[in-house]
Amino acid sequence: MQRVWDxxxxxxxxxxxxxxxxxxMMYSQTLSYTSxxxxxxxxxxxxxxxxx
Length: 52
What we know:
By secondary structure, the protein is mainly α.
């Protein structure tokens, strides 16, 4: 995925949206310093759930 993004998709006007419920896995695979996608994030939305 990193190679395709770097060579083809990064300048194609495409937005890649990653969603996941396993917070630690999402962080380690996409946001951490050692992940291949580190530094490519342009935004983040944190979904807060309400408890009743």
